[in-house]
Amino acid sequence: MKYKILIILLVVAVSGCKNEEKNNTKIETEHNHTQSEPKSENKKTLSPHTSAMAMIGDAHIHIDYSSPGVRNRIIFGGLLAYDQVWQAGAHMATWLETNKDLEIDGKELKAGKYGFFVIPNQEEWTVIFNRNWNQHGKDDYTENDDVLRFKVTPKTSEDIKEHLEYKVNKTTETSGTISMSWEKVTIEFPFEIK
């Protein structure tokens, strides 16, 4: 009888240990899973995806881009070489969409969606609207797809703009400006609604 009780106690003790081991394994797995999620949520994106937009009259202008940071680097003439095409943002090419025809630099930009590229230079920048709006960086850029090119003079400042920023500003019911600022440089150009 003592042996039967002893065997029953051993069986209960062993099965109790196995259940506790299973529960501990389950708790560890759940704990690790839960801890890994906040790390990904708290991880800071170096080039956050963002946009700028405005309604001007009945025209909707929308710019979609990823906003890289300066992070103590020389950007123009350093990280980005002068006189070379740049996708005007990080990762995917920056794009602009308009539901109305625009006039920019005396030329027409038809309603639609366009890749937005620039060629930076110390003296003047070339601004480019390209029909291939959906591309990674400038990987598939070709000048043959350009629909509009014009020159602008950059403005420099001693203040550093840490993250690339676009703005669409309304100036009248039928006109506005588009600006891009990063590091110590700003470019801006006006447009009219056709």
Give structural notes:
With 194 residues, the chain is of the alpha+beta class. Helix content is 21%, strand content 43%. It has 1 helix and 10 strands, in the order H-E-E-E-E-E-E-E-E-E-E. It has one helix spanning 2-42, and strands at 49-56, 59-66, 95-98, 102-104, 107-109, 112-119, 125-130, 146-152, 155-172, 175-193. A 6-stranded antiparallel beta sheet has the order 1-2-3-6-7-8, with no helix packed on it. A hairpin with a 2-residue loop joins strand 4 (102-104) and strand 5. The chain is globular, with a radius of gyration of 28 Å. The chain starts with a helix and ends with a strand. The relative contact order is 0.15. Mean pLDDT is 85; it is low at 20-40. Residues 23-47 are annotated as: Disordered. It comes from Dokdonia genika. This is DUF2911 domain-containing protein.
